[in-house]
Amino acid sequence: MNGHPTRDGWFSAGQVPCDPVPPPREHPYRVVLLGPPGVGKGTQAMLLGQTLRACHLSTGDLFRAASCGSELSPSMRAAIAATQRGELVCEELVIDLVRERAGCLRCHGGFLLDGFPRNVTQAQALDELLAELNVTLDAVLYFELPQEEIVARLAGRRTCSRCPAVYHLAARPPATAGVCDGCGGELTQRADDRPDVIRVRMQAYDESTRPLIDFYRRDGRLVSVAATGTPEQIRDRAMRLLDRRVGASQAVAQSV
Ligand code: AMP
User: Which position among 76, 139, 177, 204 has the lowest Cβ density within 10 Å, counted as fewest Cβ atoms?
Assistant: First the structure.
């Protein structure tokens, strides 16, 4: 690995520490990543995570990891079946999963929360949890892209079966077809990137997640980022906006 935390704390609900444990940062960035499926949140989480040394906390990754396990509880089995249909997993289970991982939200490396919250109820639950933990959410990065580009991105997406790396057949191909550049793992297409499932996920996004944009815009936490260009250009654009936003609010906090 490149010194980036393994996310073991996230996957094991804090039973196993990350390796290496993220070093303390004077101002850890705590950020929610928002945007439609396929806009590139996972790739941005990886790139921003490398820049900020903050952990990529993805609820979707929890379900994908659990789906490889053998001893699943009935509620986790139902959750995985919902992910395979492109539907949202039931509220209580997702909120419980995040609550069990509260240690990751307090991590002194900060966090990049991806896939949670996905609706207003989850956003309110996150605000309550962060208030209990005495942790402030610095910003919500909202990645914007036209729908036709999103569908093209999803169809070409390939993910590593061993590590969090994400590729695209056209925009970000691996050096060797089907093999992860970083760890040599096999690259596969996610079951929920099939066209019929993509349609269901887009519908779930429009109905449940889109209202979150207004929720965060109303209280000034939303930072919109155009998700066009190369992944690195998008990362640099996001970093500039984030530094401006977080820098400004930290300056206010220090002057109070
Ligand atoms: P993602 O990788 O974020 O696209 O998540 C993959 C799938 O996991 C989603 O299509 C949902 O079925 C499920 N999922 C992930 N996060 C959540 C959440 N916060 N609430 C409900 N379902 C979720």
Answer: 177
